[in-house]
Write a structure and sequence with these properties.
Blueprint: E1 2-4, H1 7-10, E2 26-29, H2 33-46, E3 50-53, E4 69-72, E5 79-83, E6 88-91, H3 97-105, E7 109-110, H4 122-128, H5 135-138, E8 145-151, E9 157-161, E10 171-175, E11 181-185, H6 209-212, E12 221-228, E13 230-231, E14 235-243, H7 246-265, E15 276-280, H8 282-288, E16 301-309, H9 314-326, E17 335-337, H10 341-365, E18 370-371, E19 374-375, H11 381-395, E20 399-404, E21 409-414, H12 419-438, H13 454-461, H14 463-476
Parallel strand pairs: 2-4, 3-4
Antiparallel strand pairs: 1-2, 5-6, 6-12, 7-13, 8-9, 8-12, 10-11, 14-16, 14-17, 15-16, 15-20, 18-21, 19-21, 20-21
Helix pairs in contact: 11-12, 13-14
């Protein structure tokens, strides 16, 4: 076990990609499960607050401690097994997503949940129910978690295998390795119909494993994770289409989404079926123009999209995509089209660059990130876009708007130039969250609540439901030591 107590050694654990900052007494780095259990048992007996730290790529302050100690999972980093025959991988929580993807590639497989930042830990992605571009086709992390080994706050263990432990209505009974039984009363919650990472996942007759996925280090610590993996597609079509105005791009996304849903409903193989549909507004293109000078001069919006294909249907699908794009005043000169794996990687760099450009800006100016993670029902997407444009045009704040619009999921990032603009931005952020809630959407579609968004969770579910969620935590963590400040204030 490694223990760090010197202030200069602790600094890397006291912030995350949102630029949220904290403090702690020490950082513990266990090298195996038994060391982790020992740390938790001692902390539980002393009622010492414990924050679980992943790679630091989160955007909500969830891995940032405000007191107590940090347990870093960085040394729990083994890829235990990859079984291509049965389609699964077993990993420890400190495995980098990028490392898992590289290993899977050697056996012709891939793991679909696709966060922008690949240097995240798998444990962190499960703790936040992370998603990304491929969520449009495959869904979020939850869809791929088969089994979890979990250490509770007192050092006891729970093993959960999907479809083995189910709630009966609103009653969920868990049994630990030591034989202790934990009975949970599940609150009645109306979950949004969008992708969602806000608070605990709760519904009648639910699978117990889903309570822990997205629990943000507040219910237990993952030590072993079994994931479903899929065969890598023969081919992937990758394009970026540039539009002269944003509304054309929005309409294109809506149309491509509708066709994709029809293709899946009819189980067709040679029709448009997007893997991802990502939007970039005019401000995003301006911010990217220095690094990507080949962006067309009159482009005021872009949509990046991909589709899986085979050697036999690739050309036919490409023709259909070009035909669809042409309906929105886009000619072939305004389309980037990857014809090789290296060109596809260049397009991926374009898609991911906007995130690090924003993070670079907030870090350079020492502001906390003001980037929304809201999603709304698909039939409200266009209406919500107009709401955002109207709100921001009246604010005079610099901003960029991009996101997973295939899932009606918006990342509007405000770029304040001073403290006054930051405070104005916080007020606008709240208005945006309230509007998403009004439209029956979510305040966090993929990044979680962490410490930054707790007030918005209250706006979304109300105090009574949030208190009932907190009561679930108290049953699993009676001394209330794990992830304090995450999800609940």
């Amino acid at each position: 076990m490694i223990i760090k107590t010197k202030q200069d050694e602790l600094q890397n654990y006291l912030t995350d990609a949102s630029n949220y900052k904290g403090s702690c007494e020490a950082v513990y780095i266990p090298q195996n499960k038994e060391e982790l259990k020992k740390i938790l048992k001692e902390a539980n007996e002393l009622k010492t607050k414990v924050t679980i730290a992943g790679a630091g790529t989160g955007l909500t302050g969830a891995r940032v401690p405000e007191e107590g100690i940090v347990i870093s999972t960085e040394k729990l980093n083994r890829i235990i097994e990859i079984n291509a025959l049965e389609g699964y991988a077993i990993v420890e929580p400190g495995v980098y997503l990028s490392n898992l993807l590289n290993e899977l590639k050697t056996v012709g497989y891939f793991y679909p949940p696709d966060p922008t930042e690949k240097n995240c830990f798998i444990g962190g992605t499960v703790a936040t129910n992370a998603s990304g571009a491929k969520t449009f086709k495959y869904g979020a992390t939850r869809n791929f978690v088969l089994e979890l080994e979990i250490i509770l706050a007192d050092g006891d263990e729970i093993y959960l295998k999907r479809e083995e432990v189910l709630a009966k209505g609103n009653k969920l009974n868990l049994k630990t390795k030591s034989g202790k039984e934990i009975s949970l009363d599940l609150p009645e919650i109306n979950l949004p119909v969008t992708k969602n990472a806000s608070g605990y996942f709760i519904k009648p007759n639910m699978d117990a494993i889903d309570l822990f996925i997205g629990s943000e280090g507040t219910l237990g610590v993952f030590t072993k994770i079994k994931l479903k993996i899929l065969p890598h597609p023969e081919r992937i079509i990758s394009m970026v289409a540039f539009f002269e105005n944003e509304i054309d791009a929005i309409n294109f996304v809506n149309r491509a989404r509708d066709i994709s849903f029809q293709t899946r409903a009819k189980n067709l193989s040679d029709e448009i079926d997007a893997l991802a549909l990502e939007f970039f507004d005019s401000n995003s293109l301006k911010l990217l123009s220095f690094d990507f000078p080949n962006i067309p001069l009159k482009a005021n919006a872009a949509v990046w999209f991909e589709q899986e294909a085979t050697l036999s249907n690739e050309d036919k699908l490409i023709e259909k995509w070009f035909s669809l794009i042409s309906e929105y005043n886009v000619d072939e000169e305004k389309i980037w089209f990857a014809t090789s794996e290296s060109e596809r990687k260049q397009i991926e760099e374009f898609r991911h660059a906007i995130s690090w450009k924003v993070n670079e800006y907030i870090s350079r100016n020492n502001f906390r990130k003001l980037g929304t993670d809201v999603a709304v029902p698909d039939n409200e997407m266009k209406h919500f876009y107009h709401f955002l444009m109207d709100l921001m045009s009246k604010s005079n704040l610099d901003f960029v708007l991009y996101g997973h619009l295939g899932n009606s999921h918006f990342h509007l990032n405000m770029l304040p130039k001073n403290e006054n603009e930051f405070l104005i931005g916080k007020e606008l952020y709240r208005k945006i969250c309230l509007k998403a809630i009004e439209l029956k959407g979510t305040v966090s579609a993929e990044h979680g609540i962490g410490k930054i968004k707790t007030e918005y969770l209250l706006d979304m579910f109300g105090k009574e439901i949030v208190e009932q969620m907190k009561a679930l935590k108290k049953k699993l963590d009676p001394n209330y030591i794990l992830g304090v400040g995450n999800i609940f204030r």
